[in-house]
Fold:
Amino acid sequence: MAQAPTTKRTPWSREPVPPIPVVDESNADAASVAYSHYRTGLSNHRTDLSEHRTELSEHRTDLSEHRTTLSDGRTEMSRRRTGMSFQRTRLSADRTLMSVIRTSLSLISFGFTIFQVFQKLREANVLGSSASPRNFGISLVALGIAMLIVGIGYHLNFMLALRKERQAMAKDGYIHAESPFPPSFTLMTAFLLLAFGVVAIVSMVFHVPPFG
Structure:
């Protein structure tokens, strides 16, 4: 962090304004000399004031430069905080998609389990018909797949907009955008689960391998 200016200045002690001289008006030469000395004293006093104003101006310039340095540091910190906020937003979007994955996985696995249990009971002639639980299981799997598709679509739309905004801010110089912004591993997992769910529901409906 920038340090405050350390230049030491000698305090300026203001000299009083020279008093108006008392002259003998009957002696014109002596009065002229006295008034001349008085004007010289006033001129010197004005010079001292001018030098003091110059010193104050230089001091204000130093303070202004110091404030500029501090402002540059704050601007840099703001850029870095903004850049990190993009990373936090990306991770937050990943956590949201993970919640969708957990819910979809629960629906798909629960629906598939119901389907398989009642299917085995019907094959063992324990139940005469398993149409209702079979349809219920298929509905749960379909609901899980639909929820996953919506979650993936929302995540893709949000991440594309976030990347576009990040690139625009980096182009304008608001952030550095030097930190990595890789593709989402959670999104890859969601696609794999979606493929698994589609295979499962196709096997359940058409009684084909690997789950039929």
